[in-house]
Amino acid sequence: MQEFTIEELAKFDGKDGHEAYVAVDGKVYDVTGNPHWQGGEHHGNLAGHDVTKALEVSPHGTRVLAGLKQVGVLK
């Protein structure tokens, strides 16, 4: 499993042809191609970032992670 630093994760912002990754609880997920993450953004949250806190208060919670591919972990 690939390890990412926060700086490395930031490169996966979903912009200019980059893949879109987000971190949640130390795990990194691929949201590239997810219709809710077009342009690397979802309800003010940005790909390339740790979105753990935002997910904790979202109405859908962590159940959305089940449909995402884990591509790595945060160092």
TrEMBL record:
Q: Which domain of life is it from?
A: Bacteria
> Signal peptide: which range, if any?
none
* Cited InterPro entries: Cyt_B5-like_heme/steroid-bd, Cyt_B5-like_heme/steroid_sf
**Where does the Cytochrome b5 heme-binding domain start and stop, copy by copy?**
4-75
What is the name attached to this protein's record?
Putative steroid-binding protein 3
State the organism of origin: Lactobacillus pasteurii DSM 23907 = CRBIP 24.76
